[in-house]
Amino acid sequence: MKMERVDLNLLSVINRIISDYSDPTQHYLVIANYSFHYDELTNFAPVYFNDESIEEIQLTEDGLSCKFFFHNEKADDRFTIRIPYNQIGRISKCDDTDFIDEDVLFLNEQVMLENLSQMVRFFWD
After folding, report:
1. I need a labelling partner for 56 at 20 to 30 A (CA). Which of 14, 81, 96, 120 fits?
2. Are 106 and 9 in contact (CB under 8 A)?
3. Structural domain tally of the chain?
4. In degrees, to the nearest 5, what angle opens at C-alpha 13 toward C-alphas 64 and 61?
5. Is 54 among the domain residues?
6. Tell me: the pLDDT tens digits for 15-71?
7. Can you say whether residue 99 is alpha, beta or left, with left for phi > 0 and alpha for psi between -120 and 50 degrees?
8. Higher pLDDT, 115 or 29
9. 2 lies in some domain
10. Structural domain contains residue 3
């Protein structure tokens, strides 16, 4: 099986997320096409990474597998999403949850433009 080429800057940013995710002061926002582990339907949306939301991150051959944990009053929700490397549009980091002073660590303009243009066509058609 031929392995897809992956941007080394992207991999270094992902490794930074993995090393920081247990630190409650570190907050990351990944904008990407992702799918739930049990579904092929993709969603283009931001995914919030911090110590309260992530239970496990695994690097795979073609992307990330992330197990999320959300606790609310009624239940503990756990779910896994898959994020292909080639579908990550933007990764930003902030020292607090409001993301006002965020630092953009990675940007794939092609992914962002493709998905934004699809969203515009969806709403205008």
Report:
1. 96
2. yes
3. 1
4. 30
5. yes
6. 999 998 888 888 999 999 998 877 676 788 888 888 878 888 889 888 999 888 766
7. left
8. 29
9. no
10. no
